[in-house]
Design brief:
This is Maleylpyruvate isomerase family mycothiol-dependent enzyme. This protein is an alpha+beta fold. Helices cover 45% and strands 13% of the residues.
């Protein structure tokens, strides 16, 4: 798909690739399979696809549903989660044909919107996560990231691995790396004048160093550190699953290699999840 502004092209391409994969994954599902649990906490396959539909409808500017959430949704622990759940809960009793037809129609509408998009990247639009206004480029980056992660949720659920190195994977990599300095410096409390190295291998490979300055502020770059306080090595799938809160470190500890300060490494991994 070609969009008018080149700054948006990467995100449009990644979004298209992932959302079409989601459509293909759910198209053959029978009714009972829509109730399968996914790695996304609290959500079934139906819930996850409902979220994708709802978020895209918000990007289209559709009115939000007028809907009161039940009080027994124990996975709702934040205002963002509560905001997102409205689009999910309103579709909880939709049938398989209703789900697939609404998804397909929403994709058609969004494809048309992206093809005809003439707004500049800094145009303020409604965030599908909170309703607040954010730049259009940020919103499209968030959508590309979100649909790739949920595509992987579905692939995990139905044991159909793939697209770990798709365009959306690289958007996800950059999205998650942006959060890493805060995880290391603030959340895990790495000491001033220290460095932490992340060595990630697999379909998406990268080496990044988070450096904490004398004031305790973190920055990230692609150059190695000669004397890091700790080095954390893991594969890309484990990295994104930890960063997206799909698994806890204790359950994948055998896939994570730590060299150096183990206490700091465990504190970093304890705070590794950065998604709502």
């Amino acid at each position: 798909m070609t969009v008018h502004h080149p700054a948006l092209q990467t995100y449009a391409d990644a979004w298209t690739h992932s959302i079409e994969a989601i459509s293909e994954l759910v198209k053959p599902l029978v009714e009972g399979e829509w109730n399968r649990r996914t790695p996304c906490p609290g959500w079934s396959v139906r819930d996850l696809v409902s979220h994708v539909i709802g978020a895209e409808c918000e990007m289209l500017g559709d009115p939000r549903p007028i809907h009161s959430l039940p009080s027994d949704l124990f996975h709702i622990t934040s205002d963002i989660a509560r905001y997102l759940e409205v689009q999910v809960d309103v579709r909880r009793h939709h049938t398989a044909p209703e789900m697939t037809s609404e998804l397909e129609y929403t994709i058609i509408r969004r494809n048309r919107q992206l093809r005809n998009e003439t707004r500049s990247p800094d145009t303020l639009v409604r965030s599908p996560l909170s309703g607040r206004e954010i730049p259009l480029e940020t919103a499209l980056r968030m959508r590309a990231f979100d649909v790739w992660v949920h595509e992987q949720d579905l692939r995990t659920t139905f044991r159909q691995p793939g697209n770990l190195d798709s365009p959306g994977a690289y958007v996800a990599r950059d999205f998650l790396l942006n959060a890493l300095p805060k995880v290391v410096a603030k959340d895990a409390g790495a000491p001033p004048n220290s460095a932490v190295v992340f060595d990630v291998h697999g379909p998406v490979e990268f080496l990044r160093t988070v450096r904490v300055d004398a004031q305790g502020l973190g920055t990230i770059d692609g150059t190695p550190s000669l004397g890091p306080l700790v080095t954390i090595a893991l594969d890309w799938e484990t990295y994104y699953r930890l960063a997206c809160g799909r698994v806890r470190h204790a359950t994948v500890a055998d896939l994570v290699k730590i060299e150096g300060d183990e206490d700091l490494a465990h504190e970093i991994l304890r705070n590794f999840s950065v998604t709502p």
